[in-house]
Specification:
By secondary structure, this protein is of the alpha+beta class. It has one domain. The chain contains 4 helices and 6 strands, in the order ααααββββββ. The protein is globular. The two termini are about 15 Å apart.
């Protein structure tokens, strides 16, 4: 999993290296599957991200739909999974995506850098 840490070291940028794309880039590096396929390139600002999230029924619905479209299965919180971080933990956007780097350790990109999140509300695997 250490090979994905450089993904999270890149500077934060909406629509390029944000919580969704960094977690999806890490997942894609490990599994070859892109959970953000179809959304990449559709926003480049916080307001653009919020429009995409709203148009897709909210963050949780968007995460579930993207996982289903990528053919992912429900996860169990194991390393290599991608997970949905609940709105109470990411109030600005109503949720977020994180990548499980080790048992009980979820990495999430924030505007201030790499954040370790202790839990996710749902996760998916290949």
């Amino acid at each position: 999993m250490m090979q994905v840490l450089p993904i999270f070291a890149r500077p934060f940028a909406w629509g390029a290296v944000d919580c969704c794309l960094a977690a999806s880039d890490a997942f894609r590096a490990v599994h070859g599957v892109d959970p953000m396929r179809g959304i990449r390139g559709t926003y480049d600002s916080l307001w653009g991200a919020l429009r995409v999230i709203r148009a897709r029924g909210g963050f949780e619905r968007m995460a579930q739909d993207q996982a289903a479209a990528a053919g992912l299965l429900p996860g169990q919180g194991a390393p290599g999974e991608i997970g949905f971080v609940a709105p109470e933990d990411v109030p600005l956007t109503g949720g977020g995506l994180a990548f499980c780097g080790a048992p009980g350790v979820w990495w999430m990109k924030s505007e201030t850098g790499l954040v370790s999140v202790g839990r996710v509300a749902a996760s998916w695997r290949v």
